[in-house]
Amino acid sequence: MRPAPRQRDRGAAFSEYAAVILLLAAVAGVVVVAVPGSTEDLYETAICRIEQLRDAAACPDGEGDGGEDEEPYPHDLSPGYCVRDGREERYGYELGIGWFKFGQQYKFSQEELSDGTVLVTFLPETEAGVVAGVGWDFGKENALATTADVEGSVSAKLAPGMTYIFKSREEFAEFEDEVEAAITEEMNRQMNPESQIGLGIADWLGVYDPPEIRNPDVRSGTISGNADLAAAVGLWTGNNDVGKPTPSETLDGYDLNLGADGTVSYNRSMNVSHMFMDPDNQQTSYTQSFTATGSLGGNLLSARNGVEASWNGGQRVVRNEDGSLASIRYMMTLQNASEFTERGRAGNRENGGGVADPDKEITAVRQMVQLDFDTPEEQAIGERLLDERGLLPPESALDFMTPEGDDLIGPDMDERTGGTINREPAPGAPDWERFLYEQGRVWQYQMDGQSQDTEISAELKLGLQLGASANWGVEERHTSRAEILDRPRNGERAFIDYPDCLSRLQPPQEEGE
Questions:
Q1: Are β-strands 303-319 and 283-300 bridged in parallel, bridged antiparallel, or unpaired?
Q2: What is the band of 99 on the pLDDT scale with cuts at 50, 70, 90?
């Protein structure tokens, strides 16, 4: 009796299946050669359609559900400010006399955004404040001594900044020399304002030709208040030239072997920026931000290890030249940093100082929500939002931007779906909630980076506390993950990948790394 066809299939040779696989591979190879730019999309669409057989909502970004045949969405949902790669250089100094401190810091930053725009910013910052502290020494007459210090400070900072905006790296390279000349001139004016009088006279006499200065696209001024509290404890061992303990009333001859320290700081700032990109509509932005930082560290011999966590939140309101509302942006950044420092210590606790050279590994997640207002009706919605919510974003955005759970330990991006910002507002919700759902720009991205800083300090006590320090450093950040909130679909907006914001200088990380 002839076996049934199904039984015959069970005995098919492996070579027959191999032939089918090779045939499929050949077809795929033809597709790759014929349409090289669409290969990734082709495979993603195919996988998505297979997943839809199991889950109809498997393609929240629209793949396999109309694709390119869909009607274009009437609102622009691309991010207003998503950084691919960033680099910052900084240096400055601080002087302390008694309870008073004064310092200056100079920062240069260059950022490339997701649309290729390059931002170059120069930010000179002046700080003045008061500092006070108390300390205790125990066991000074023994081979082991213990110290404890608590120090607090309150200060104010003033920072006039200038930003240049270029459409691409190529455009920036074309005008880089002009920008450097303008920044140098501004830095000279900040550091040595008296010299400007002499240069003006020299220019008038014809013996000095001032450089061509490119006007910045944005001029800003920031004023901020900062409060810090630092505490440290340490265990010291005594030694001298012959290796024996040397007691001293000032802990001369003691070296720090083991210690722990911690800091807590809070900063509130107000920034006003004038933007000159559009000569017919010179906009002004008003930004309020809040930053809280905490750190813990430990010392072992000359090395220090520590961790630092910080949270920053803020609101940026942009108004047109006529005073009408242009946009509102809400911002939140959660950052973790781990630090390792090889540092030396000179002298003793009464007259001393040292060199600190910490290296930090940084991971930060930024989340932003932006509402743009083009018509008087939309502007009225925004004004009501400001009147009723103040600095707080809409409730659905607040839920998205509030850290919780693991976010308090390590920064993490919000889930793609499941939050209130993903869902269509219920009937009776405020009109700004509906406006946010229909056309709000929402994005989040993770940046990984490294920071290297060096500080040289010296202290002297001659009846009055005197101190000075100089510092310089560089920091680089690269975006490894980026998502934006997609257009509404079936009563929901889901986050989708946004590859345009991924770093061009570093390979992106796989999700979960």
A1: antiparallel
A2: confident
